[in-house]
Amino acid sequence: MMENNSRAQRVADQIQRDVAALIQFEVNDPRIGLVSVTGVEVSPDLAHAKVFVTSLGAGDIGRERSEADGRESTAALNGAAGYLRSLLARRLQLRVAPKLRFLYDASVERGRQLDELIDSALAADRERHS
User: Fold this and answer.
1) Half-sphere exposure of 130 (CA within 13 A, CB side)
2) Where are the alpha helices (DSSP H) in 2-106?
3) Are the beta carbons of 3 and 31 closer than 8 angstroms?
4) What's 7's domain CATH number?
């Protein structure tokens, strides 16, 4: 059982690297924009893969716009999932390439929000003690 789990993790890591490269160099959809593949979860039978992505470069515009960009990018990637799967099948040495499902990963955005909250709390504390 442990061998299967480590194999699934190795396949997930390889899919993460390959899908990131394929999105960057092979997909020309302007709705996707600049995305980062933050993680991949593969089912135990290697038939399905959840690909977690986050949208980059929209942080200057604000939180709502960034999340909207991320959701739009995810929808565009799900539309291109079949094409990406066919390209991925050529790279992976598996019997069957997993079906890809893209999901928006908001953890980067939540981390940025927490950083801002901590910074504002520290600034308020400094102001109170000055």
Assistant:
1) 6
2) 2-26, 63-79, 81-91
3) no
4) 3.30.300.20
The phi, psi pair for 47, rounded to 5°, reads -90, -20
- DSSP code for 27: -
Q: In this structure, is residue 113 part of a structural domain?
A: no
Tokens of 116: 């801002």
CA distance linking residue 75 with residue 32, whole number of Å: 8
Which residues are paired to 49 by β-bridges? 42, 100
* Total domain count, the chain: 1
Provide the pairing of β-strand 48-55 with 99-104: parallel
Q: Which domain holds residue 42?
A: 2-105
Max mean pLDDT among 4-8, 91-95, 101-105, 106-110 falls in: 101-105
Give pLDDT tens digits for 36-66.
Answer: 999 999 999 999 999 999 887 644 444 445 6
